[in-house]
Amino acid sequence: MTTGDAKDPLNVLFLCTGNSARSIMAECIMNREGLGKFQAYSAGSMPAGKVNPFALNLLRKLNYDVSSLRSKSWEEFSGPDAPKLDFVFTVCDNAAQEVCPIWPGQPMSAHWGLPDPAAVEGTEAERALAFDDTYRMLFQRISIFVNLPLASLSKLSLQKQLDEIGKHGAAATKEPA
Asked: Catalytic residue among 46, 66, 100, 120, which?
């Protein structure tokens, strides 16, 4: 695995069943926070076909470019022309339980499950708050991830860090002695 520099960013795929909210937000956050080190993508096992309007509104409000966002199948990332993936993160519990395609390059993976903000019912304000909460949790996890000292972590230690980020949203950045 490379360490990801300006010439060779590491490819990260975020998976969710519908690819309409959580994985889309994660893609945007990673592409901004990991600029130069990471290139993010998102996909779903059963794509909804459109990005959730609450997710789009939140991302626009936070000055993300949403013009190229679309709900797409994970099959786009399993073929011979797909980018070589370095990391695959599931952000919903349903996708984590599904049988995933075989990813070229054997990327490291972890489950970073979050509640589905699109499933929240209530007023517009309550639904928007659910998307705000999801964004905050994704931002925290991705910020921790992009600041890990990838070059100095063994593969086993890195896997442990990735799993911890998904469980608690925090991880130590030193390799155990």
From this structure: 100
